[in-house]
Amino acid sequence: MRRRPAEYRRPVRRRLSQWIWALIGMFLIAGLVLFVFIHNHHEDQVNQPIMGEHAIKHGGFNFTKEILNASSFSRQLAEQMTLAKAYVIIAKEHNNLHLAWELSKKIRSCQLLLSKAAMRGEPITVEEAEPIISSLSYLIFKAQDAHYDIATTMMTMKSHIQALEERTNAATVQSTLFGQLVAEVLPKSLHCLKVKLINDWLKQLPLQNHAEEKRNSPRVVDNNLYHFCIFSDNILATSVVVNSTVCNADHPKQLVFHIVTNGISYGSMQAWFLTNDFKGATVEVQNIEEFSWLNASYVPVIKQILHQDSRAYYFGADQDMKVEPKLRSPEYLSLLNHLRFYIPEIYPLLEKIVFLDDDVVVQKDLTRLFSLDLHGNVNGAVETCLETFHRYYKYINFSNPIISSKFDPQACGWAFGMNIFDLIAWRKENVTAQYHYWQEQNADQTLWKLGTLPPALLAFYGLTEPLDRRWHVLGLGYDMNIDDRLIDSAAVIHFNGNMKPWLKLAISRYKPLWERYVNQSHPYYQDCVIS
To answer: What molecular function terms (GO) are annotated for this protein (predicted)?
Structure first.
């Protein structure tokens, strides 16, 4: 059969190509949708751990607000759990161990439910909360029915708090007592040093002759020089005071140091200061046992030492634990500690003198103290009333009419340890007689506990000139947070407290300030302390 000519043929329909393009377009759209879906799903999987970490914020849920909401199940569970814990304690005290066990079990269930709600970031539902709330309510009602009512609960909690407070106070007193005992004990190294020096003193006669020459030196009574006094039986500590003073003085050869110690330490103290050079400064050492006027008929403190009740108070086995431990230290009855009230009698020819404790370090030239105007007062001292507990009423018993009629309870306290004394004004005001009067009034220890500061506050009342705080910075023996700028600006830093710099319990931050003035090259120091 012949084909027709082209012009007579039927036109071909091209619908197939249109369907193909339509199918391809649909596949492309489906692929794009699938790609977007898979991509978003992948991002959800990647972000899932992060959302888990912040489950509390999931869906805008804030668990803290949920707990604080008074109508929420979380709040009800938390309150019931707190009450149940109190009843657990009471049930155990009444030996109802089964009830205590049941309550503890429900408390754990409650804690678990609250934890799950916080982790998943959704509020607790009524289906979850109702069983636990019902069972806890039943157990709490059961506890109340057993007469564990609210009043009983409050009384029990109060007794527990009081018991904890008593245990805490007892532990604090015991800790303070142990610290006081450590502070009182002479370290083995210092005892070794003292033994070696006393051996030299006894064996070397030239040392004793040299000491006699210094005693008769005209420099010790020359009022054109600068005089300092230290009363101590601690050789190393006294040496640091002297060494730090001369090292920071503009003219060390114009300084004279008057040291008074006891009979036991006299030889070793002499040997140390005679065999060491202190830049030309004069050092005089005296024995307190040579002061014949220092006797029971004149000094009230000696009467207290000899009194049987006082000896039992300090040295007896039965001691009142309510009394602050440091106030039972025999140091408070030490004659060396009270010798500061007899300075004009020890040095009758001197006009001015600076008193230094043996636990201070001098960082500036102290000769400027002698030119300060005390405005007719006897004592120049740094006041300590920046802290409220250093007012007079904190040291002295103002319920006694003898005290309340003569003194202001809000008057500022001041510090011993670095004081400039005008001895001419002292003799004029007869301060030592005032000290004796108040010591005799306090024979029964009702005016103040013990120590040298309370009678000094009374004897020097109205006779103390306040000095700039930078002359004397205290607290390096107990306060670990003193500002470095205050320490650097201080003329004298004071290691008052139990953490003395020569002890192992010293505050490490401050110890280098003291150690820099120790003569560590001395062979005895190397033998006793370093080795």
So the answer is: polygalacturonate 4-alpha-galacturonosyltransferase activity
The helix or strand, by DSSP H or E, that contains position 393, with its residue range, turns out to be none
| CA nearest to 434, candidates 471, 399, 464 | 464
Instruction: Please give the Cα distance from 172 to 315 (Å, whole number).
Output: 22
- Report the C-alpha gap between 170 and 250 in whole angstroms: 51
Phi-psi region of 287 (alpha: psi -120 to 50; beta: other; left: phi over 0): beta
Instruction: Count other Cβ atoms within 10 Å, centred on residue 143.
Output: 26
- Give the CATH number of the domain where residue 360 resides: 3.90.550.10
3-state secondary structure of 373: coil
Pair 281, 380 in one domain: yes
Round to whole Å and give the CA distance between 289 and 302: 13
Is residue 70 domain-shared with residue 210, that is, in the same domain? no
CA distance 451 to 330: 10
Instruction: Report the chain (531 residues): mean pLDDT per 10 consecutive residues.
Output: 51 55 64 57 45 43 70 82 80 80 86 84 84 84 68 68 77 64 66 89 87 88 97 95 97 97 94 93 94 90 70 51 44 77 96 97 97 96 77 88 90 94 97 94 84 92 95 93 95 93 91 94 84 57
Using CA atoms, how far apart are residues 130 and 287, in angstroms rounded to an integer?
A: 86
Kindly state the helix (H) or strand (E) to which residue 53 belongs, with its residue range.
helix 15-53
Q: Is residue 356 part of a domain?
A: yes
Q: Which residues make Cβ contacts (< 8 Å) with residue 420, sequence separation at least 6?
A: 352, 353, 354, 355, 369, 370, 372, 374, 379, 380, 467
Query: What residues form DSSP beta bridges with 260?
Result: 231, 286
Q: Are 404 and 471 members of one domain?
A: yes
- Domain extent, residue 274, equals 188-285+339-530
Residues 143 and 275 placed together within one structural domain of the fold: no
Q: How far apart are CA 518 and CA 243, in angstroms?
A: 8
